[in-house]
Amino acid sequence: MSVLTLVAYGQTLRINYVVDLSHLSPEEKWRLEHARMHVKHKGHEAMHAEMVLILIVTLVIAQLVLVQWKQRHPKSYNLVTLFQMWVVPLYFTTKLHWWRFLVTWFIFSVVTAYVTYRATRKPLECTTPRLVYKWFLLLYKISYATGIVGYTVVMFTLFGINLIFRIKPEDAMDFGVSLLFYGLYYGVLGRDFAEMCADFMASTVGYYSASGMPTKHLSDSICAVCGQPILVDVSEEGIIENTYRLSCNHVFHEFCIRGWCIVGKKQICPYCKEKVDLKRMFSNPWERPHVMYGQLLDWLRYLVAWQPVIIGLVQGINYILGLE
């Protein structure tokens, strides 16, 4: 059964007719079907070109707007990005009934809300900075390990190693991609919350100010991140943790400055704002992947938070212009 479309007096007529194709060779049948497809989709090439052009222009303009927004108003940009990172995946996973993600999201939200509440209280309790950095450093390490395991499972599946354990490729791939998604998503979200908490705590302690001079003078025996005394000399080997001296000669608890730089995404001295050399701080080659992983998470934030918004904007423009 085939359909013949005629246009007469402004009216479109669709007439069904039967064509016997039994006498045609397979090649001739393919050519006929190919010709029918071209007739059916005639004019779509220009429409597709318009849609691609709209997508490219929208991506360029959106990128320029986001860059300018981030440079001129970083605080509002970070807050909006953090909100979208927190809410956008929740909307899609609720719609798709991904209950495992919703359970982990709820647990993460409850614990992080409590930690953030502690970090934003004034006066700041002396145990709060360590609590905050311990939680987000733990979350960072778990997300890092989860992402690595997920990536390994995906690569093993691509090379067919899953067949040795009699695991179906689709099951192995779903498991690997899920772990990779969990690791990257909570890694990005945790670092954003950690950065916000780090700003609140350091400003409350008084040795750090995002803009302007600190409100307190830093003593050589005080850590500017947590405000607590430094009990181990730089030259001594600590039992629990060591003391670290930056190139600006300011000293900190090792866990505090590592949390400040890696988890809190700060690459400056908390007191004098001198640039921190991460390669010098993490001279151990086994620790450098953590720095690269943090940079990867910063790049992925754009894909998770803003890419769905930009794609939705493109679809809205196409709908308004009547492009399908």
From TrEMBL:
GO cellular component: endoplasmic reticulum membrane; Golgi membrane
A molecular function GO annotation: ubiquitin protein ligase activity
SUPFAM superfamilies: RING/U-box
Subcellular location: Membrane
Coiled-coil stretches noted in the UniProt entry, renumbered to this chain: none
Domain of life: Eukaryota
Mode of membrane association: Multi-pass membrane protein
Classification via InterPro entries: RNF121/RNF175, Znf_RING, Znf_RING/FYVE/PHD
Domain RING-type: 223-273
CDD domains assigned: RING-H2_RNF121-like (cd16475)
GO terms for biological process, alphabetical: ERAD pathway
Transmembrane portions of the chain: 51-69, 76-92, 98-117, 138-165
Keywords attached to this entry: Membrane, Metal-binding, Transmembrane, Transmembrane helix, Zinc, Zinc-finger
PROSITE patterns linked: ZF_RING_2
Protein name: RING finger protein 121 isoform X2
Source organism per UniProt: Salvelinus namaycush (Lake trout)
